[in-house]
Write a structure and sequence with these properties.
The protein is an alpha+beta fold. It has helices at 2-28, 32-38, 43-72, 103-118, 126-130, 133-142, 146-151, 156-159, 246-249, 284-293, 307-323, 355-367, 370-376, 401-411, 430-437, 461-472; strands at 76-84, 92-97, 160-165, 168-169, 174-179, 183-188, 212-217, 233-238, 251-253, 257-269, 335-337, 343-345, 385-397, 438-445, 449-457. It is built from 16 helices and 15 strands. Belongs to the amiloride-sensitive sodium channel (TC 1.A.6) family.
Length: 474
Amino acid sequence: MDDISGSTSSKNFIEQRRQSIVLDYLIATSTHGLRSVGRAYSTLNRLFWFFSFTVTCGMMFYFVISNILQYCSYPTQTKVDIRLDRRMPFPAVTICNGNPYRYDNINQSLVSYYHRLTSSNLTANQTILNSLLIPLIVDLFTRNQTDELVSIGFQLSDVLLNCDYNGIDCSNAFTVSVSPVMGNCYTFNWKASGTVFTVNDYGETLVARDGLTLWFYIPQELFFPSIWYDNGVLITLHDNDELPVPTETGIFLRPGASHLITYQKSETTFLAAPYSNCTTAVSDDLRDLYASTFLDPIASTEVVYSESLCLELCQQSYIYSQCSCIFPIPFFTRKIFTNDNVLISAKACNIFTGQIACAILARQRLVSNDSLQSKWCSRCASQCKHIDFQTTVSAQDAPSEGDREYWSKIILNPSSNVSVLLPSNIAQNFDYYFDRNYLKVQVSCSSKYTIEYNQEAKLTVIDTFSAIGGQSGL
């Protein structure tokens, strides 16, 4: 009996001791709700404070978890700055002839191509030969006849009278590239070619307007007759290492006028993962596209990622999977990735077979089907940096009387070093030819302030810990 009584007393003591420890903690704790539970003077009062503590604690955990989840969603904000850039690089300026092929040079290539197609020495009429222009261009690239491909187009010296950049002679500061649509194009201030001019680089000659000034004589009499092309030049402004795409971003300028192009530079920069899916990684097919576009291997060493070019190349990959060839427009390229991410060599579609029709249908099918684009173009993420030049174009009639008098003395002087293509009767009809073919372009920076749009993290780890500390009372 004593053993039973002793055992019960021991249990009661332990139970009371446990309650005492809990009560002492509740009274001594700095947590206001728990202290009020410990000091409650009745059961109802204790239940009230316990309920209040539970609700407020749940709210605290809700806000703490919300802060953690908000940080893990990696929110961003855009910071806009207007920065004065006295050493701003002058943009690259790419110039293409509006009608890229010389009628006198291309005719011989057309005749040779016709003879290879027909396996005969029959004489073809000019209409048939003219219809073979695009097939000839594709054939020359496919057979790697780069020299002949360049020779049938206009050289820069055929059309350029003079080049001046802030008083510096820039006639030899151009990098040549080639495309199936625009033929030979020439880029001023290309990064890989050497020195990049800035807006504050000046020569020793006084200039009326800062920037790049180009004088052209466009020999329309030698243009290849085609509904594809127009008279004049095509000019595009782009970053110094960005592949020029004149067919998409070019500005058409007509002869018989003096054109002024002013620009304002802006930069947009995105954060890399995990804040966005942008990338700067350059794939091997894009490197090959640069190498195929620029004739000088050194010029294709500076390569930057471009989402639009990646999308173009993924279209070529899909076309190849459907037609066993690639579409020869708008770029020359020799290598593409398969859907298994294997780099392979590919030939252009044959224009005289059903391959071109197959390629056109395949391209239309891809661009109109979102699931196909997701499958074939999944590697084409957005680019982390965009540099844009907002341009304003104006023009006035030219040449002026001063232009005509100045250039007549140079062009009609037998000892001058002008190499532009001139008709044999230029001396007798100078005013007619010069007024018809003269073209002047000035490219000038309208503001040395660069508008910068920078994506920034809205929350940092410190911000998140601070918010958690505030919610928990720490």
